[in-house]
Write a structure and sequence with these properties.
By secondary structure, the protein is an all-alpha fold. It has one domain (about 40-185): LemA-like domain (de novo design (two linked rop proteins)), CATH 1.20.1440. Helix content is about 75%, strand content about 0%. It is built from eight helices and no strands. It has helices at about 1-20, 20-60, 65-80, 90-115, 120, 125-160, 165-170, 180-185. It starts with a helix and ends in a 20-residue tail after the last helix.
Length: about 210
């Protein structure tokens, strides 16, 4: 009887392995790890925003709309609970993606405005934030690329025969991914250069 049980267990293990169960499990864990890195890098960027806004405000307080836009975009990002389960909810994933996109756009506007303030650009604290922001944007690009690749491999596996049957039995679903437009965007990380020469003329607002 014991021998039969061992044989049955071995048969089940072999069957699951042959049908891609172990592969699906492994790829699912890879996606989770990649997503965790994405969240970590986005959080790093969000943590830079308050100091960045405060520094810019010290030299360009009249740029209220831009400063408010960055602050509000960061607040919107903070309202989304980026849990591991979010990658299984397409609607929630799109909401997260849109919020991060709004923060990216707001930061680009802030960077563009800063070009009109030579004193701001020469501020050491601002230049330190520049280096941190640029490094973070690069890390975000790398993390997102890894996530995109991990999800692509996972989705191909659970759509392919015979592993698709295993996925159906164990209720594994395809996971949402960043859009094609986003993939093109992360292929060329934004350059944060506050050290470029300021435009001729007086700073804005003077």
């Amino acid at each position: 009887m014991q021998a039969i049980r061992v044989l049955l267990v071995a048969s089940v293990v072999a069957l699951l392995s042959g049908c891609g169960y172990n592969r699906i499990q492994g790829q699912d864990e890879t996606v989770k790890a990649a997503w965790s890195d994405v969240i970590s890098q986005y959080q790093r960027r969000a943590d830079l925003v308050p100091n960045l806004v405060a520094t810019v405000k010290g030299y360009a307080e009249q740029e209220k709309s831009v400063l408010l836009g960055v602050t509000e975009a960061r607040a919107k990002v903070g309202t989304i609970q980026a849990t591991p389960e979010l990658v299984n909810d397409e609607a929630a994933f799109k909401k997260f993606q849109a919020a991060q996109g709004e923060l990216s756009s707001a930061l680009k506007s802030l960077i563009a405005v800063s070009e009109n303030y030579p004193q701001l650009k020469s501020d050491q604290n601002f230049r330190d934030l520049q280096a941190q922001l640029e490094g973070t944007e690069n890390r975000i690009a790398v993390a997102r690329t890894r996530y995109i690749d991990a999800v692509r491999e996972y989705n191909v596996t659970i759509r392919s025969f015979p592993s698709n049957l295993t996925a159906m039995i164990f209720k594994y679903q395809t996971k949402p991914n960043f859009t094609v437009e986003n993939e093109a965007a992360i292929a060329k990380p934004p350059t944060v250069d506050f050290g470029a020469a300021a435009p001729a003329g007086k700073p804005a607002g003077q």
